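User: I'm putting together a teaching handout on how sequence relates to shape, and I'd like one worked example. Could you take tryptophan synthase from Aminicella lysinilytica, show the sequence you're using, and then write out its predicted structure as tokens right after it?

Assistant: Happy to. First the sequence, then the structure tokens directly below it.
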Amino acid sequence: MTIEPKIPYKIYLSEDEMPKNYYNVRADMKKKPAPLLNPGTLEPMTAEELGGVFCDELVQQELNNTDQLIPIPQDIRDFYKMYRPSPLVRAYCLEEKLGTPAKIYYKFEGNNTSGSHKLNSAIAQAYYAKKQGLKGVTTETGAGQWGTALSMACAYLDLDCKVYMVKVSYEQKPFRREVMRTYGASVTPSPSETTTVGRKILAEHPGTTGSLGCAISEAVETATSTEGYRYVLGSVLSQVLLHQSIIGQETMAAMDKYNIDPDIIIGCAGGGSNLGGLISPFMGRKLRGENDYRFIAVEPKSCPSLTRGQYVYDFCDTGKVCPLAKMYTLGSGFIPSPNHAGGLRYHGMSSIVSELYDEGLIEARSYEQTEVFEAAEEFARCEGILPAPESSHAIKAAIDEALKCKENGEEKTIVFGLTGTGYFDMVAYQQYNDKTMSDYIPTDDEIRDSLSGVPQFPGNETK
Ligand SMILES: Cc1ncc(COP(=O)(O)O)c(C=O)c1O
């Protein structure tokens, strides 16, 4: 008889057990994600074209559909040691509260000053920029987690960092802004008068409070017009999912130590980076026919790109200065209602996640924000961690799946990504506690309207 070892509340790996390679799920995908297209020629973007915007090494990673493992440079691994490996937590208290036979685990990525998983890719992108001898990088940030993470990475490597922050967040989250400035970044509310595209957007939409799509356009323009700068992005791109594969690899290593095999793996999905990173190695096993898992992507009902968008080529930004990506999209002109999960308010989705979803390998569902905050509070009260609104989408789905197990008497093992903490989201929690939080779900007409801006060319028609 084998005696099952008691699973600790937290499973920690040692520093030596941290992955030494990024895992590239595209290598195991039979049908590869569609390439980025040049919007002028509709031909796949070449390394040379991409090199004008992104760092050289990151361009290679973006285009690499074949190498399964990509070594993580020692300098990046040394930085990771400052806050990794992150714990895989058995949510014993939540299980007890729900009275479920399900076993619930979460991978906690909020244990660094940026408060989220974004630092995993920020340090990689900043490292390659530094290695190329660049002076600095530009980026956009919505809720502020990505901008904070990049500021931290740039401070460490002594790189300049220019952040365009969606205006509404800039005004609502002054402390996020100050954290970025403390790490030495310059933070500009977007849309701004500092770029041509910003001035155009302001002229067309006076008084707009901005969107991620606008901020991306401004950051790209600044990078391409400033000597020694490149643009970096916190999600959506395949290179970002590659860096985030460290989350899934650590999760798998921790579970393997105790012979645990999950049944269901859940992640919130904004641009798809944490979800993609968490599921990648498990998806690899599934794609290679070694094992089977259910994967669930969770998004807000106010910005339902997977559940209500269409799978076509679209612009990644509002100003239409970026390449075209094939993805589930609501249209690059889609301005989501002011949902508090700022990191999930993006019109599109990673092309890797989109392809896997289109092939039926990932499920997707959406929730209203009040039900998400209800789950967040339930989780905070028993597990102690105050979750980010984005992460709370995954919590809600994990709770729902655990309650289904209770109904059916099933002992499934559920893992979800707890991507960050919600200390800068207290206005949202206040609204929830005061019962003044509202839910806005776009109508079919609104989505059809914004999809009408999708570029039309043969094979790319929207339905
Ligand atoms: C805490 C947190 N979770 C999730 C997300 C969603 O991003 P992604 O889908 O790229 O993981 C964000 C984005 O800002 C975030 O800050």
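A couple of points you could highlight for students: The longest strand covers residues 160-166. The CA atoms of residues 228 and 404 lie 54 Å apart.
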